[in-house]
Amino acid sequence: MIGTLFNVGMILVGCTVGSLFKKGIKPAYHDILMQALGLAATVIGINAVVQRMPQSKYPVLFIVSLAVGGLIGQALDLQGRFDKLVGRFSGGNLAEGLATAILLYCIGSLSILGPIEAALKHDYTFLFTNGMLDGITSIVLASTFGFGIAIAAGVLFVWQGSLYVLALVLQGALSTSILNEITIVGGILILGSGLGLLNIKKINTLNLLPSLVIPPIVIGLIQLFH
User: Fold this and answer.
1) Which is higher by pLDDT, 143 or 34?
2) Which pLDDT belongs to residue 86?
3) Cα 88 from Cα 91, distance rounded (Å)
4) Which candidate, 206, 203, 200, 195, places its Cα nearest to that of 37?
């Protein structure tokens, strides 16, 4: 868990620095930071999909995952509940920033593979690298949305901690195929978040989050009956 603690620490440091910058940044600079972040999220999302799609053994699984996961998320109204919860503690568009932060921090190759590598091989390279990247991202996010972005650090800790424990328990059961499909779906969600930040299309990315659990379930069932 050393790598995860480092990752969380870098986010908190980045949020602190970014929130200090926020006080002296004019609205025009906030706008350009929002656009920069939107472009970065869009590129990160596209890159994840382009890298992983050729390796997919289940080329339509991401479509099924998004459809089924979206229906589940909509039924649970995850986006609405999240917006109301955040609205109680903060004004403005913090909910949008938090949704973006959670996706950027948690759904990426380094964030997914990092705790697994740490658990199975005691290799913290991915997590240390991810921590540096998240620290920089946090500065931009917090300078735009405020220190409330630090809430995402807690989500990251639970996410990576769960993957770490899961990897220890399941050992070899976490196949490359499962990680590959999760990364594809995650990349699409990050892309959707970027489009929202750029005001191209508002997408309820939180309602689509259940899509991430569909690939392991489907692949697990396929392997079970083979």
Assistant:
1) 143
2) 61
3) 8
4) 195
Q: What is the mean pLDDT of the chain?
A: 82
pLDDT in tens, 195-213: 887 888 888 888 888 898 8
Q: Note every long-range contact of 25-31, with CB atoms under 8 Å and residues 24 or more positions apart, other chains counting.
A: 25/143, 30/143, 30/144
Give the whole-angstrom CA distance, residue 104 versus residue 191.
Answer: 10
Highest mean pLDDT among 18-32, 47-61, 180-194: 47-61
Phi-psi region of 146 (alpha: psi -120 to 50; beta: other; left: phi over 0): left
Distance (Å, rounded) from C-alpha 206 to C-alpha 199?
17
Find tokens 């050393």 and name the residue: 2
Q: How far apart are CA 86 and CA 164, in angstroms?
A: 28
| Non-local CB neighbours of 55 within 8 Å, separated by 6+ positions | 176, 180
DSSP 37-90: HHHHHHHHHHHHHHHHGGG-S-TTHHHHHHHHHHHHHHHHTHHHHHHHHHHHH-
Report DSSP letters for 117-138, one per residue.
HHHHH---HHHHHHHHHHHHHH
Q: Identity (one letter) of the amino acid at 147?
A: F
Asked whether the beta carbons of 55 and 180 are under 8 A apart, the reply is yes
Say how many residues make up the chain: 226
State the first-to-last Cα distance of the chain, in angstroms, to the nearest integer. 35
Handedness of CA 156, 162, 168, 172 (dihedral sign): negative
Q: What is the pLDDT of residues 136-175, one digit of tens each?
A: 888 888 887 888 888 889 989 998 888 888 878 776 666 7
Tokens 């503690």 belong to residue: 89
